[in-house]
Amino acid sequence: MIVDIGYFSLLCALVLAAYTVITLYAGIRRNSHNLVLSARYSSMVILILVAAAYFSLTFAFIRDDFSIRFVALHSSTDLPLFYKVTAVWGGMEGSLLLWELILAFFIAIIAFRYRKTNREILPHTLIVLNLISLFLLFLLIGWSNPLAGEFPVSSEGNGLNPLLQNPGMVFHPPSLYLGYVAFSIPFAFAMGSLMRGKLGNQWIVSTRRWTLFAWFFLTIGIILGGGWAYVELGWGGYWAWDPVENGSLMPWLTGTAFLHSVIVQEKRNSLRIWNMVLIIATFTLSILGTFITRSGILNSVHSFAKSNIGPAFLIFIVAILVFSVGLLFYRQSLLVSKSQTAGIFCKENSFLLNNIVFVVMCFTVLYGTVFPLLAEGLADKKLSIQAPFFNTIMAPIAVLMVFLMGITHVLGWKKTSLVLLRKNVLVPSLLTIVVMAVIFYLFSPPWQMELLGGVSIFAGYLVVRELIRSRRTGDLPAEHERESIGSRLLKSLTKDGRRKGGLIIHLGIVIMMIGICGSFFNRETTFTFGPGEENSFGRYVMKFKETTETQSRNSRNVGLAVEILQDGKSVGVLTPVKSYYPTSQQPMTEVAIQHSLIEDLYISLASINSDGTATLNVYINPLVSFIWGSVIFFIIGFIYSMSYKPIQLRQK
């Protein structure tokens, strides 16, 4: 019964979304406030209906209702409750429903939050958002119905893919979807501005927080995905240039470019056409990422859900491009910026060059991801572009990106004198040269690591220096001079949140780059040993203690207890295991990791052999903790940046 309510709710939401689009169009044509108001209220009803469908599906998972095909395919009676709830987005149909729920929630916020500040473009913006919602609801009702029945009804389900039975399942996919869906907000505002012909900077101001919100959650989603792969797949790495990984990276690259480029439009009223192109590309690539993940056209270890909706997504991508690019071409005369004189060394040019770098990186990833598919489809040739291709091209581009990130902070708007520039970069340049020389002397690293590490130090120095300058109490207005030092310090820390937030996020990028530099020094080995025997690797000695066997609710876990010794002293016991699930023919590898600030000792169990010996794959991964630690800076920087309150042009 509750499932019927959920399906009926989706059907009503589809009808209501169509009504909303028609009503908004009629309201615009007739200049009717009542029609627009009706459409705004219908957005709230759509949210309630989609939420009802989502919670109906969740309830079906909790109740082990295998009369629902999606539940039968992705759950089982022995699945822990935690994973039953997260299994809702473990397949195509459920993840689409989650996407629609997030989008409906955002649309409801937009409909009421911006009713006064964006009165002219709001109806057009809501039309774009509801058309996207209409497409998703159409898929959910037709090709990808998560509430479709199953007959005959089985007493047991297929179970959730063991790779998805990880705590990352509760955070990684929702974070990615929050990022993907939130980018539809600035896209819709941009299209609304083009449709209305109101092409000032207000849509930029109104969507700044949405853009930052989308970028932050997409960033966190990508990092969480890398962490998930690191602990779950057992190969010792966190990024393999897999097509699905690339699918999330591409909109991140163009979204990052857009996030920086709009600052130039706000400050200098330039790059207006470029910003439109960037947000169109970012939203389109978000859809393309879903197409790659869910269509099944590309083989990927991350592609857990395959369906036949690939052609529908492909048509949707083409429709987006035709509509948005056509509209941009139609309005381009209104977007041309007046030329403004600027020197060679200025923030405007640095931002523009950084934008070009991000776009080149995105094109490289797009080419490496899609070209094998085109080669197979058009020439019937099977090609595979692997990690060396991406690493070779992306490494020098990343060096330039980090350098520009640092140097931009010491450049001024319009023009920067060479004397001031030399004064600002002399010390960090000398420090960088010294550190690079020491690293080269001690480690003789690859040139990619040497350059990336060098520019990371250079950029890190400049970012930290700007952070120190930004928190000086002397920057406060004169009326605060009589306050206590503590009070003034607190106010200086909370002042100018947008700038401080950006600096902290950039510091996080520097720390992440240092962590990536550590990957050039990764080491690995494989060895077989028996009970009581020892093997050494690096500064570690590993001793075979005993085999273990445990039973969890839905898996049997066979492991090996390995005592870790350093300098003859025991520093802990690691137990890598093989987990056997009744729903999977192959055992799952559960790695054991000893974390430290300097390096990770990473052990995966290859096999326990018939003669009582065991084979281990052992990796030493330097500086990986820096990558995970960068998340702290992203969170703090995001909070700081969101505290910035842009001036809204309230319309009467």
Task: Give a nutshell description of this structure.
The chain contains 19 helices and ten strands.
Low-pLDDT segments, ≥5 res: none
What is the residue-averaged pLDDT?
86
CATH architecture of the largest domain: Up-down Bundle
CATH class of the largest domain: Mainly Alpha
Largest sheet: 6 strands, antiparallel
Order of helices and strands: HHHHHHHHHHHHHHHHHHEEEEEEEEEEH
Range of helix content: 55-70%
Calculate Rg over CA atoms: 27 Å
Coarse shape? flat
Assign the CATH topology of the largest domain: Four Helix Bundle (Hemerythrin (Met), subunit A)
The helix/strand class is: alpha+beta
Would you count the extended β strands for me? Answer: 10
End-to-end C-alpha gap: 48 Å
Number of helices: 19
User: What is the number of domains?
Assistant: 4
Strand content: 5-15%
